[in-house]
Amino acid sequence: MSSTELKHDFETPFGLMRATVLSGALKAFTFSKDEKKENDEHETFNKLGAELAAYFKGDLQKWTIPLAPEGTEFQQKVWKLLQEVKIGSTLSYLELSKLYGDEKAIRAVATANGVNPICILIPCHRIIGSDDSLTGYAWGIEMKKELLQLEQKFTTKVDLFSDL
C-alpha cells in the first residue's frame, strides 16, 4: 500500500466534500471550498462513492470504509463512541461523556467532537444539547440540521425539529 496521501472530491446534496486517503484508509472527509478539484484514484474512493450514494438514498445501515483519523488517544476514543450512534439517532454531549466513562469530561468530549476530521462517517452531527438544541457544528448549525433531517427521513423517529 502507498503511504502517499490521496485526495478525491465528491459532489453531495450538501456541496463539495473532499476525502483524503492514506494507506487505504480514510484520514479526512470534510466540506471543501477549494476551487481546484482533486481527483486521485483509489479503490477506497470508489467504495466511499458507493456508500455515500447509498447513504443519501437512505439505503446505508453501516459504513464499512476503513477509517484512520489523526488525533490523540482521547479523541480516538470519543470518535469510536460517535461511530456507535446509529443513523437517525442523537445523543447529548452529556450522554456521550457518560458513555466515555466520565461525565465531568463533557467539555473535552465536546472539543474532541468538534475537531473530528471525518464528517458524516464519524457522525459528530448526531450530538446535540441536553435540551435537544442543535449546538455547535464545525460546518454550521444549518448543515447539522439538514444532515439530521436527511437521516430522520429514513427512520421512524419522531421529528426533532417540529418546534424550529
Distance linking N and C termini: 48 Å
Could you report the average pLDDT, rounded to the nearest whole number? Answer: 90
In CATH terms, what is the architecture of the largest domain? Answer: Orthogonal Bundle
Helix- and strand-based class?
A: alpha+beta
Strand content: 15-25%
Radius of gyration (Å): 16 Å
Q: Kindly report the name of the CATH homologous superfamily of the largest domain.
A: Winged helix-like DNA-binding domain superfamily/Winged helix DNA-binding domain
Number of domains: 2
What share of residues is helical? 25-40%
* Major beta sheet, strand line-up: 1-2-3
Short synopsis of the structure:
With 164 residues, the protein is an alpha+beta fold. 34% of the residues lie in helices and 16% in strands. The strands form two sheets. It has a three-stranded antiparallel β-sheet with strand order 1-2-3, covered by helices on one side.
Structure overview:
By secondary structure, the protein is of the alpha+beta class. The chain has two domains: 6-57, no CATH class; 73-153, Orthogonal Bundle (Arc Repressor Mutant, subunit A), CATH 1.10.10. Helix content is 34%, strand content 16%. It is built from five helices and five strands. The protein has helices spanning 43-57, 73-82, 93-100, 106-114, 141-153; strands at residues 6-12, 15-22, 25-31, 91-92, 127-128. The strands form two sheets. Strands 1-2-3 form a three-stranded antiparallel β-sheet, covered by helices on one side. It has a two-stranded parallel sheet with strand order 4-5. α3 packs across α4 (106-114). The radius of gyration is 16 Å and the shape is globular. The N and C termini lie far apart (48 Å).
